Each structure stands twice: as C-alpha cells, then as structure tokens.
Hints:
Function: Cell surface proteoglycan.
Structural class: mainly alpha
Subcellular location: Cell membrane
Organism: Sterrhoptilus dennistouni
Membrane topology: Lipid-anchor; GPI-anchor
Family: Belongs to the glypican family.
Amino acid sequence: DLQICQHRAPTCCTKKMEESYQAAVRRERTQSIQALNFELKYMIVGHITAFQEAFESLLRFAENRTSSLFETAYRPMAKEAAEPVKELFADISLYILGAETTVESAVLRFFDSLFPLVYSRLINPGITDLSEDYTECLQLTRQDINPFGHYPKNLVTELSRSLWASRMLIQALRLGSEVINTTEHAALSKECSRALVKMQYCPHCQGLTLIRPCVGYCLNVMRGCLASVSELDAQWREFISTLEYLTNEMASSHELEMALSGIWSSINEAILHAQLNGPQLSATVDKVCGQPKQQEGNLSSANIVPVKEVTETQTFVMAHTSLNNKRREFINYMKRSRTFYASIAERLCDGDLVMRDSSTCWNGEDVV
C-alpha cells in the first residue's frame, strides 16, 4: 500500500511511515529555509533598529540645539516655546517611522504655535491679554500675513527632501523583512513533499540509511519545490537596487543630518525676520484681531540677542559618523545578497544533504 517509496524489492516501510516522512520533510524544509534566511533577516532587522537609534540620537541633538536657541537668545518666550518645539520633533520622528503625516503640516503647525509667542513676547512685550481667542486669531493671521517670510517654506523644502529618503528606507527595510518571513512559511505542495520524501527517505525503506541524493537530482527536486520562491529573483534584485538608491540619496548633498542640525538656524532667521518687520505686523494684526491689553510702559525686551553656537558638535559628529558607517556596511552586505532567491535551491542542496565526494548516490529510483 506504499504511495511514494514503491520498489520491487522487499521493504521495511509502511504507509504510516510515509506520512511521517512527509511531515518530517515539511518541517526540515522550513528549518532549512529559516537557517538560510536568518543572517539576511538579522541584517535587515538589525539595521532598522540601528538606523532608528542613530536617527533618534540626531533628532535629540537637533531638538536640544533648538531648545538652547530659545533659552539663550529668546528667553522671554523660552518656557512657552518648549511644547511647540517638542511637538515639532515628535512629528518629524513619526513621519520618518511611516506615520500618515507630512513634513509641511508639522513645520507649519510649529510656526502657527510660534507666532503668538513671538508677537506677544518679542514684538509687543507689553501684551498681557493673550486669551485663547486672541491666540487663535494670531495663528490664523500668520497664514495670511506671513510674518516669518520665506523661512518656513524653505525649511519644509529642505526637510522634505532629506527626510523622504529616510522614511522610504525604513519602509523598504520593513517590506524586505516581511518578504523573508513570507518565504519561510510558504506551504509545500503535495507533489513537492512527495518528491522530497522520495529523495531523502525512500532509500531508508531499502535499508540504505547512509546513502545520499545525487547533486543533480537534488537540484531538480529543490528547483521544482521552490519555483514560486525563485520567481522573486527579479523583484529582489530590483529591491536591492532601490535600497542602494535610497542609501545614496541619504548620503547626498541634502543629508538628513545636515537638515536636522540646521532646523534651529532656520527658526532663528524666521524669528529675526518677524522682529525686523514688527511695526508692520503690529499694524496688520491690530486691524484683524483688535488691540490687546498693554501693561503700563512697554517692556522693551524685544532686543535682538545674538545666538551663541551650541557646543554639542562632538555628539553630532559621532552620530553622523555612526549613521554613515551603518549605511555603508549594510548596503555592501545587501549587494552580496542580490542572488539570494536565484540560488536558494543550490544553497539547500549544499552541505550534508547531498553526496559530493563519493562514487555512489541515490537518483530517486536506485543507487547509482
């Protein structure tokens, strides 16, 4: 009653043993593919983690630098500006990690929150009535009177260009990890599991427990079993090329590191622009939002204070170098994996599975 290991000579196998063999080859094939995938998946998942850590380090540096700008140059509004600064960098982090948001909405929301503070603490430091309605009016007015000039738009352009590649790289790496997971758990067809039993276990039914499959026979069986997986070859090569393109984009002149570290400078220029145009802005705001309450005597703390360079350069350089090194190591490894899916049958037939240095091997029917 044997279905797979039929042979003219007497056999010690039963139909139940054939069923056990089929379960064994499915388990072994999954384990073999998992072992092949392990290093590749480890590299991808490891790089996602390493990239996120390096990115968070750069983001913290840029946020600290921006906070220091307010504490040193714009002390009257430093405390109130802390929350908008925190929100801006949280939004940037979420964008990089793939959230449904945009750089433009994050930057413009920040400048919407910033304008009431600049207007009431720097341009008109005597204002006492910063009610919810008046604050909202100032935020809406910002979009019309453009108090910060071209600086918000320039910041959006610079950040969008540099953060896009980072966002895409994270998404591409996650996709790569999903592809590998899917191929690990690809179900073997009934024909495939029967062919594997015939190749690996039918010799046992003749008492030939030490004989192994011939190399060519193994390749034919594995290529048949893994035909659907091998079809990923062209797309996988394209995927590696995309990763290469994205890492090169990140390392180009519009670098992520430079864009993040320059945020404080763009904000500073924007505030200076608003201060220099203070009288015109006040006249327009008075027409739209009305005149707020003033304290007796204008507190003239609107003096423009020169910004001191924040001395955290060493931290930035270390994070910058770390990220560049990680990119380089990772893409070099991934380039070597271009043929991963094309050569998967060859790799599974390598090692202990087949008989290489012997004059005899199993061809599916007999010892040859």
